[in-house]
Amino acid sequence: MPDPDVLFLVLDSARRDRVSAYGHDRPTTPTLDTLADEATVFEHAYVPAPWTLPSHCSMFTGLHPSEHGVTSGFTRQGFGIPSSVPTLAERLTERGYHTAGFSNNPWVGQLSGLDRGFEEFVEWDLEISRSATPIHSRRGRLYSKLHTALGHASRQPLVLLKRRFFTERLVSRATEWLSHTADSEAPTFTFLNLMEAHSPYYPPRDAFDALGLDRPSAIEARRLNVKLLTNIMGRASIDWETRERLLEYYDASLRYLDRMVDRLLATLEQHGGYDDALLVVCADHGKTLGEYDRDATPPHYVRDVNTMVPLFIKEPGQTAPESVERPFELHRLFETVLDGTLDRSLPATPSTALIEDVVPHTGRDIDPEEITHWRMLSDGTHKYVTSVPTQDPTARSQSAHDRNGHQPHHDSEIDADRVEPRERRQEYLLRGTGIEEAIVEPESSVLDRFRSLLTERTEQFDMTVAADSGANTGQLSGSIEAQLEDLGYLD
């Protein structure tokens, strides 16, 4: 069987429980609902890490964050994927694929090395696209000047309208690519990261209309987004009424995002490439929308709303739906795409999914004493969450920044020779999915089982992969730093 065309869509920050294909009562994703009728739907798909950069790096390398080293924005020897670690696009290019990537997220592209291996890569701001036309570049430079001239508080409507413009343009560029390569003898790999489910939120009015919701206003959108940001930063709680309206904005954003997905799939169908293509649609992480305060234990970013995501895979020739109940780790999409199909040799018994996070997303400089490295293990019924000690900063030289690229601090991987005393370790056992329930007094036998499973999983890590290799040396330019600030990554 020839290598199939591949369309790999990452719906940045898409929550599983707000996708109608997963049972949400609002029709937020009619296109994905239709796709689910002829694809494999994963009920317990878990991200490698609860934020964009390490999650994408894992999907593009097949490695856990502790293995590829991209855990807090900077690897042990620099920024982004180590140069010696081959990416998915590089592997496919070696196989004779034509490759193109389109990204609305500044973390996903040249900055982090995730553009490596792509013949064409179009980023969030067309001025840094490899193939940007002069008019697109002028638009990008004009926006950068406006962005600098305006204060952060006053520019939010401009930011949101600009993002919508570039989303439309980005998808248009992708559909042009799909149309242009439809008759190619070589297979194609097309990747997109779409940001419409990522805060801040101000979806178009017709998306609210489609869901029967009250229309938005710029003033209301600004107020809601400021409240959400202050909640994420741990500075305020969100009341029930505000959260309900935030969820309406989020659902409308998903509806608009689903429209972009429809444009892409319709282009494939128009050119006869839909039936025989491998389609992958997932999220890199979910989104907390006021469910948890910043001081919640365990922290909000390890919860299911942020770590269990939608995942649809339509294999070449597949026409019937299938549901997978056992946990699936998104870093395995690397092998799925390379194989052109799902691995049917997986055991039928439930497995476990491992999620890693290093530094809480605070948007500020972090004292080394505050750093907590979390590891989570889920079997689809329970989630075990445990803290892992940071290494003595003198034990290993490391380029360390917080995940937002701020001033250096000592951030580290696990030292295999160190074991945190049980009385200092933070451990939690959660039950259920979605808004999980913390078990106050978990049975020791259950904790012991998860501890043993976690040890077994992490002992298999090859943590020398990134340590012994050079990393991308990308720097935050002024325009990229401003974009990250608008998205809430920088404070």
UniProtKB/TrEMBL annotation:
The keyword Electron transport does not apply. Residues 399-422 have a biased composition (Basic and acidic residues). It comes from the Archaea. Residues 387-398 have a biased composition (Polar residues). Residues 4-339 form the Sulfatase N-terminal domain. Keywords: Hydrolase. Residues 384-422 are annotated as: Disordered. The keyword Nucleotidyltransferase does not apply. One of its GO terms (molecular function) is arylsulfatase activity. It holds the Pfam family Sulfatase. Belongs to the sulfatase family. PANTHER family: ARYLSULFATASE FAMILY MEMBER (PTHR42693), ENDO-4-O-SULFATASE (PTHR42693:SF53). This is Sulfatase. It comes from Halocatena pleomorpha. The lineage of its organism: Archaea, Methanobacteriati, Methanobacteriota, Stenosarchaea group, Halobacteria.
